[in-house]
Each structure stands twice: as C-alpha cells, then as structure tokens.
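Title: Comparing notes on inverse folding

I've been comparing how different people in this forum approach sequence design from structure. To keep things fair, I'm posting one structure and asking everyone to reply with a full sequence. Here's the target:
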C-alpha cells in the first residue's frame, strides 16, 4: 500500500494524471466526423507523445487506466479510445515477450519506456487488460527465476540482463545490488497482488506454482542452501506463501 500511495501522491504523478485527462479529451476529438484512418492517426500521435514528451509514456498509461474507468460509464467514444490505447501499449511489449528478459533493451525503445514505469501502473494495467497481464506476469516470473539462478551461481554476471525493471547505470553497480533487484521484484509482485484485490487468487496461483518450482528445483538439491533458502523463503512468505507447505 505504501508503494502505491507514495507514487500517487508525487507532484509529478498528479501532474501527469492531469495531462492524461487532457490527452483523452484530445483523442476523443479524432472521432468527430468520419475519418477512416482514425486508429492509425491516434497511434501515430501516441508514438510521438511517448518519444518526444518527457514522461509521455507515463501519461499514456495513466490515460489508458482513466479511459477504462470512463469506459465503464458507457461512453461509446471513450470505449473506442480505451481499446486503441490498450492495444497500442500491449503491442509494444508483446513482440518476443517470451524472450523479453534475455537481451538488453535499448533505453530509448518504447518497450523500455513501458517496463521502466512505476510498478503500480503496470499492476493497474494488468488488472484491467488481460493480454497485458499475461505478458507482464511471464516477464516477472522470468525475472524471479533469473535472480534465483544468479544467486545459485548458474547465471554469470555477463548473462544477467535486469534491464526491464532495474535500470542500473553501470555493470559495476550490478555486482553490489542483488538485494536492490530482489526488493524491486518483491515490490512488483506485492503491487500486482494488491491490485487484484478480491481476484488475487489469480496471482496467488502463479506464486504458488513458483514456490513449488523453487522448492523442487533449488531447496532440495543445493548443498549450500541455507542462506539462499532463507532469502527466498522470506520473498515468498512476504507474498503470502507458507514456506512450511509441502
């Protein structure tokens, strides 16, 4: 909860939510009169917005979230805008989503601009758009397994690419910030689970499967499992998994 409200109360967040409302008003104007290429025009506008405007991608995600709320008020135009926004955002991350964590992503790419946003935005978008949730959850799972492999010594420092959620300034920092990445992953999972509220069993099921995989693959077979096990026991325990469960 503290991560959500500390983000939502930031001056920049408030300003960008206001900008998102203005953006939605502008996008709705595209539907005044018959325009056969309105979808492409809006997508072009979004691309320019995300590329050229500071905080542009963050504004767009806020707009997508707000448009879903307005969409529930049965506005036909807002329904169309919401669909375009959701499809456009998802299209940025859907390409090669399965291998998204295996290669560094350019910090200037639109995909990177999505993944490096505050995890509350990603969690909220996951709640209201199933295709985005499916991609986001897969990437989170891969990140979690990657950190386990790194701590086990099965993944070299050169092979680790925490570019999606941990934009570190240099490889030197990577050596000393395992705990920072661990905490970052935990925040992503916590916010995702919290956002789903009454539907959090969906997230619990994913975490339960990861907990079972973790126990069978790592805890049962590693000689120096004590410290490693304690770290990841705490990780899953804080996410509601009981480490005494079989």
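Reply #1:
Here's my take.
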């Amino acid at each position: 909860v503290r991560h959500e409200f500390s983000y939502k109360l930031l001056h920049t967040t408030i300003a960008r939510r206001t900008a998102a409302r203005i953006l939605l008003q502008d996008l709705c104007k595209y539907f005044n009169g018959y325009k056969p290429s309105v979808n492409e025009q809006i997508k072009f506008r979004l691309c320019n917005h995300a590329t050229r405007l500071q905080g542009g991608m963050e504004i767009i995600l806020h707009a997508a979230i707000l448009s879903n709320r307005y969409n529930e008020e049965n506005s036909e135009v807002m329904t169309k805008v919401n669909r375009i926004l959701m499809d456009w955002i998802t299209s940025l991350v859907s390409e090669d989503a399965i291998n998204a964590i295996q290669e560094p992503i350019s910090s200037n790419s639109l995909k990177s601009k999505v993944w490096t946003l505050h995890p509350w935005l990603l969690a909220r978008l996951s709640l209201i758009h199933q295709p985005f949730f499916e991609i986001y959850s897969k990437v989170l799972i891969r990140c979690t397994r990657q950190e386990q492999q790194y701590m086990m010594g099965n993944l070299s420092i050169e092979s680790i690419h925490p570019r999606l959620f941990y934009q570190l300034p240099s490889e030197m920092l990577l050596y000393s910030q395992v705990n920072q990445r661990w905490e970052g992953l935990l925040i992503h999972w916590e916010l995702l689970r919290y956002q789903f509220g009454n539907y959090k069993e969906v997230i619990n099921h994913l975490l339960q499967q990861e907990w079972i995989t973790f126990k069978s693959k790592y805890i049962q077979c590693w000689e120096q499992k004590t410290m490693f096990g304690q770290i990841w026991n705490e990780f899953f325990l804080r996410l509601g998994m009981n480490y005494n469960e079989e």
